[in-house]
Every structure is written in C-alpha cells, then in structure tokens.
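Repro:
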Amino acid sequence: MRSETEFVGRVFDLRVESDIVLPRLAAATGSESGVISVRRGQVPVEDTVNHQHPKAYFRGEASSLWMAIPDVARIHVHGGQAIVYDPAPGADLDTVMLFLMGSGLGALMIQRQMLVLHANGIEIGGKAVLCMGRSGIGKSTLAGAFARAGYRLFADDVCPINDQGLLQPGAATIKLWDTAAAHFQIDTASLRQIQPSQQKFDYPVEQHLADAPLPVGLMVELAVHDSDGFHVERITGSRTYSILRANSYRFEYVAAMGQLARHFDACARVANRVPIIRVTRPASGMDLSGLMGVIVEAAHDILSEQDEADLVTAKTKP
C-alpha cells in the first residue's frame, strides 16, 4: 500500500506530506500555513476502544482521535498535524483513502480549531456559499451541476471555516453516485470507484477548483417537502445554532475531543457574520436547474444586502 516515492500536495492551505498518493490534491507551493503528515504506522486496537460506549468505532481525548473502521483500517489523528493509518489485512486502498480524506481530515481540521461543516462550497458573487444538508439530500450532485455550469468549487463534504470566516480550497473532487453521473452523461468507466461496495465515483474538478480563499457569505440548508415548487426561508435567532450543529461534520468527534464549548463559540461567531437560509425542494424529483437558480438568486440578493449594509457602516464611521 506504500508508494515508492513521497507524495506532497496541498489541501485547505496545508502542505500534505504522505507515504501514499492522495488523489485530487493541488500541488504544494511552499506558501502553506502549516504542514500535516499522513503515514502508515501501528495503531493498537486498545487505543481505539471506547469504554464508555463499547459499540462506538471511535474514541477521543483533548487533541487525539482514534478510529476503528471494520475491515478497513485503524486511524489515529493527533495534534492537528498527523494522521496515522493501520490498514486491515487485505483492505482496499481506495476505501482507506476515503476515510483518510474524509473522517481523518475532518477530525484533523476540528483539532486545528476550525468550524467544520458537512457541506459543499461554491463560489457565487465573489463569496463562498455553503450548501448543507443530510446525507443523500443531493449536495454533491448539486455541486457537480454548479461545476458543469462553470462555477468554482471549494470542497466536497468537509468544509472548515477559520476564525476569520474564510474557506480555503480543498481537494479537487466530487463524490458522485452512478445515478448522478448518468444524469450528467459521465462515463463512469473512466472514473475511480471510491469504494468497492458502493457505486460512487471520484469525479475530478481541477479546472473548477477555487484558487484562493474567500469569506463565507451565505449558508444554505437543503431540505425536501411533499409540495410543489421551492420554498426559501431565512433562519434567525436560536435556530441558527441548531442548524449549524445539525450540519457540523462528525459532531460526535467534537464532543469526544472535549471541544463543545469552542464549537458553540465558533457557531455563534459564524451565525452572527453569515446569513443562513433553508431551501426546500419537492421530494419527488430534483430539478437541478431550478434549484441552482433559486440558490443563485437568493445568494445575489443577500450578498447585495450585505454590501449595502457594509457601505452604510463605512460611511457612518468617523
């Protein structure tokens, strides 16, 4: 499973030094804000045992998280700087990489004091717009539609927001189900299957990846209803924290590593800075063009409001 040569790449403004080739990472430039390592090593079974919840597949403390993914690998993420993986005998490499770049990277960014959301980032109107929602709601399919329409993307699934409210570009890939690929008339024979047990594929979007960080200007929670048409609702007040908590990436990791207070503070900062809306679509079908139009229109309206408010604030300052 080990590559013969060292792999170096870039993700979320971090230089990644790995002993296996990690797909769809941008080339490192030397100007990254930090360095993380991905290395094969021993992760003892006992380290992954959660004695309080014996059926849980992870255990955490302060700045460490251990995972035990059956038939795949044991993984140790620590200090916001390193991911150590210990593959199971005969484990599929693509599946190991799926967890390294998903759960592993997500835990590492939580350790680096980021608010990590389970979302897809898209550039609209010069800001990053995050599309959130439960698994299966269509976030990746929607991101694929935006990419094919010429929009720039930031990340798929793991979206870490720093203290300045910025989102950095992640890996240049979208994980598409075979049905979504068929909708886009993409031949999956040319794509890497990310896990043997699922018809889900690594769709490259290098030409659509954002090349610089942008402030998050809007967060969109995707939902469905049994009615016709789209419904847009502005989320305000105490409901904003509920939305951010529900769409936090692996909130159980946050709790396991004792970061609940920091997470609440980060949610409060983001909610005070970034508007949140819920866009509800018919459950009976996914009108991608219509959904994109609703999100783009809402984004432009809200971002224009923000620009006007910023202008008024600037004029009233002494």
